[in-house]
Amino acid sequence: MELGISELSVRLGLAKSTVSRLMKTLNQVNLVEKNPETQKYRLGISAFELGFVVYHTMELRQVSYPILEKLAKSIRRVVRLGVYDKGGVVYLSKHMPGEDDGTISMIGDRSPVHCTAIGKILLANQTEKEIERVVTDQLKRYTNKTIIAPQELKKEIFEIRKKGYAVTMEELRSGFSSVAVPVKNDMGKVVGAISITGLQSHLYASQIDQYVSQLRTCSRLITERMGMDYFVHKHKSAK
After folding, report:
1. What is the per-residue pLDDT for 150?
2. What total of structural domains would you count in the chain?
3. Is residue 38 located within the same domain as residue 127?
4. Is the pLDDT of residue 210 over 50?
């Protein structure tokens, strides 16, 4: 469907001059395309790409929700699902075993990648260029354990990439630590990460190993179910 400036002006309740400026901007980033013959606008390729990303992000949250809810109740710790976004982590879900234990991030919140386990594991799965961009940025120190030196942080990120999981000890907030592993789609691409957060005093070496094992099990389940959902959806569409 194509719409002209006048039609858009009426639908949006905005002046034609304002709509014209908006459409020009959207056209520059390929969110809309202008038909040279009719001079009307339609959705551009970037809009479809954005819709694709949003759809699969919501699918990730929906599929993982019961799995992470069960894990949180089982281990009596806060469990989160997050995705990478321009040097930050956006939390899609937060599962608590009972009352809020004081951990600060909520659904929809953004957290820095350089001092959270979920952020570091996501960063470790980005391109070398993106890692370099993030670690050389002006990073904020949140506690005396926050790593902000570029070379030190980069070294840790590459170690995390080798291990396949990340651990942070009181780097974002004193008294709290976390463990995280990546979540992949059925094509093997990292699409998010899940973490367990608890009091620093409760996170010792053997506990970390146990949490990593439990998170990896949940991660595999999420991947399998996302693949099953895709297969079912594709099968239904073919009918």
Report:
1. 95
2. 2
3. no
4. yes
Backbone φ/ψ region at 156: left (φ over 0), alpha (ψ -120 to 50), beta = alpha
pLDDT tens digits along 89-147:
988 888 887 654 444 455 567 889 999 999 999 999 999 999 999 999 989 999 999 99
- For residue 233, the model assigns a pLDDT of 44
Q: Are residues 132 and 174 in the same domain?
A: yes
Token reading at 18: 């304002």
Is residue 47 over pLDDT 70? Answer: no
Domain housing 107: 53-235
User: What DSSP letter does each residue of 20-52 carry, written as one string?
Assistant: HHHHHHHHHTTSEEE-TTT--EEE-HHHHHHHH
In this prediction the pTM is 0.72
d(CA 1, CA 14): 20
* Residue 216 CB partners (closer than 8 Å, separation 6+): 165, 181
Instruction: In whole angstroms, give the CA distance from residue 85 to residue 180.
Output: 17
136 vs 208: CA distance, rounded Å: 29
Cα 151 to the chain's mean position, in Å?
25
| Element spanning 192, H or E | strand 190-199
